[in-house]
Structure formats: structure tokens, C-alpha cells
Amino acid sequence: METGLLNRIEAEAHRLGFDLVGLAPATPPTTIGHYRAWLEGGYHGEMAYLARPEAVARRGDLTLLLPGVRSVVVVAARYAPCPPSAGPGDDPARGLLARYAWGDDYHPLLLSRLCQLGTLIEAESHGAVAFRACVDTAPLLERELAVRAGLGFIGKNTNLIHPRLGSWLFLGELLLTVDIEIEQAPSAGGEPTSRCGRCTRCLDACPTGALMAPYLLDARRCISYLTIELKGPIPGELRPLLGNRIFGCDLCQEVCPWNRRSGRAVAGAASRPRPDDIAPHLLELIALDDDGFRQRFGNSPVKRAKRRGLLRNVAVALGNWGDPAAVPALVQALHDVEPLVRGHAAWALGRIATPAARRALQEALPGEADGWVRQEIQQAL
Questions:
Q1: How far apart are CA 184 and CA 6, in angstroms?
Q2: pLDDT, tens digit, for every residue of 18-33?
Q3: By the 8 A CB rule, do 151 and 185 touch?
Q4: pTM above 0.85, yes or no
């Protein structure tokens, strides 16, 4: 690939709104052994799609994703404009969303931009180059590719960190069937060696102990996994540790010194997010029916949790809030069509433990047909 085309790729990527762009060879990843060991340790929890043999094979061989792939363009786009120091998330009556979920789903936006970039490369090569665009759902080790492309280093919290922009980054990849002649774009500005030093702020801040050691995440204890990927009940011993976090968690990034240095809000952001985007009222969320959930979160990453998952999380947050004002809404949720919601509503009522809460639990127990929900009610009493 000639240098002039590389420069045009970089310029077009920036024009499309990507903050970083780098280039890496599509050689076998060096971290595939660590990935396999992580799976063998069971740290992926119920995310069985990560351990499927064909998915593991593809992560170790990019030619299984795109035959003839020779190089990869890796891009990053910043997110998360800085909220006020005392934001709505400090109110326990509100549920806190991870910053990447404050706006619309990023997947279609980034994928569209990557496809535009791929179309430019395809046109410049007169159809001689094929491409495949990927945005975090494809089975590849994207953080290793980002490091190879010069976009940063891996921190102790397992996130990619750019020395200037921090870790509030969406990643995307463009696989190309063309050789690469330089190791990285001149402006990528990253470096592969970790620069965390002796800092352990992320490990110390994790309320559930999910960061078991530097660079080792046990997803089974991670609040992001528990509130998004886990489809069943949240383990009882972990529920109090979630606080009011109802979709994802940013704590290990919020305390990271590299993110404090990244400073300013995202370039091009129309405005600061509204309080209801950052931390919606829990009592409004627990009352959502299917239509209300689709209307509110149909274009949001929150839809991944589905209504039953989100209301499960909201019930836990209401129990952690512990205010008797939540009892009427939780009593209503105790009769929800979803057992997952009913069981966690029972737990929350048990936490609040007012006479009205106990009475509702006692009245619900005889008519409850689901064994797990009955057990939650009995434990709550």
C-alpha cells in the first residue's frame, strides 16, 4: 500500500469523526493464549458465545473473518463528555447508566463510518481490495490490534488507554486484503508498554472485586456483566454492591489518572447529556411496560439488557436505596409477568422491610407459582 493512500485513509478517517486511526498487520495475535486461559478459568461466566470453538478460532486467525486479509485499519472515537462533579448519579433515587449508554447505540453509527472508509479504499484500488468492517461484535482481539496500531496500551483495568485521550474510546476495525508498509499512522501516538506503573486505583475502586489482579478481570463479578450480560438472577451477595448502577459500570475508568488527564468533553458533542440520560428516575423505570421500554430505549445500548434485565437491575437499585417511597412500585413489580423481575422486587421489599413491604410479600407468597421467586419471597420475609 503506497504512502499516499495511507495518508488519505488517515485523513478520511478523521473527516468521518474518528479521533484516532492506526494500521496493523493481520498477523496471528500474540495474546490468544492468554484469552484461552481466561476462558479455561471460567472468567467469562455465562457469555458462552466467547468460548464457541469457531469464535475462538477466528480470534486466532483473521483470515477466517476475511479470506486474504493482510492488514487492519484500527480506529477509535471518543465518548462520554464529562458530567458535573455532583451529578444526578449521586442521587440514590436515580439509576446510573454507563457513559457509553448516555446516547444512541454506537454500533450502527461507527459501522456506517467504517464502511464509508472501506468504500473509499475499495474505490482507490479500483476494486482490487476487499474489506470487512467490525465494531466490537466480531470475534477478534481488538485491543491487541489497537495496541499494534499505536492507539495506546492496555491498562490494569484491561481497557485500552491512549496517553492523551484516556480510555473513553469506542473501537472499530477495517480488515483489508492488502499489505501494509508502515507500522502505524504517524499521528496514532500510542505505545504498547503499559504505563500504569504502581497505580492500583482501578483495582481498589472496584466494589465487587472483579479486577482480581492487574490485567485480570473476572467478568462474573463485574457490574457491567451482572447488569447486561447475565440473563438470570444477580447473586444475592453481590446485589448490595451494585448501589444504583443499573446498566454497566465506569468506576475503573472514572478513577484512572489517564482519564483525568484526557480532560475535555468529546469534540463534536452537541451538548452535555441531560440528567435523565445519565441517571433516570428509578420509580419511572420500574413502571415501564414492554411498549414503554421500547419507546424509551429502542435506539439505546440499554436495549441489550431487555426489559426484564433492566427492571431486575432497577429493583436491586431500589432495594439499595431503601426508601419506603419505593414500596408501592415494588409491590406492583412483585406481580410482574417476568419471574426475574418479581424475584428481585421481593428482595428489594425485604431490604426496605416496612410493614407494608412485609404484608405485600406475605400476600404474594401463596399465589406465586415460580419456585425461585417463592424462595426469594421467603428469604425476604
A1: 10
A2: 999 999 999 999 999 9
A3: no
A4: yes
Structural contact between residues 10 and 185, judged by C-beta atoms closer than 8 angstroms? yes
Question: For cell 473473518, what's the residue?
Answer: 65
Q: E strands within 215-298?
A: 216-217, 245-247
Reading the block at residue 360, the C-alpha cell is: 405485600
Looking up cell 422491610 gives 353
- The dihedral over CA atoms of 355, 359, 365, 368, expressed in degrees to the nearest 10, equals -110
Q: Which residues contact 76 (CB under 8 A, 6 or more apart)?
A: 18, 19, 20, 21, 146, 151, 160, 162, 165, 169, 170, 171, 172
- Pinpoint the alpha helices (H) of 2-70: 3-15, 32-40, 53-60
Q: Which cell goes with 355?
A: 410493614
**Widest distance between CA atoms in the chain:** 75
Q: Which one-letter amino acid corresponds to residue 234?
A: I
End-to-end CA distance of the chain: 69
Percent of the chain having pLDDT more than 90? 80
Distance from C-alpha of 216 to C-alpha of 219, rounded to nearest angstrom: 9
DSSP states of 319-365: HHH--GGGHHHHHHHTT-S-HHHHHHHHHHHHHH--HHHHHHHHHHT
Give the C-alpha separation, 85 to 15, whole Å. Answer: 32
Residue pair 301/109 in contact (Cβ under 8 Å)? The answer is no
Q: Which residues pair with 60 in a beta bridge?
A: none
pLDDT tens, position by position, 179-213: 866 544 433 334 456 789 999 999 999 999 999 99
290 in catalytic set: no
| Cα angle 184, 105, 25; round to 5 | 20
CA 149, CA 221: separation in Å to the nearest integer? 31
Q: Report the DSSP pairing between strands 153-154 and 160-161.
A: antiparallel
How wide is the angle at C-alpha 254 spanned by C-alphas 248 and 259, nearest 5°? 125
Three-class SS state of 216: strand
Q: Which entry of 61, 91, 105, 136 is annotated as an active-site residue? A: 136
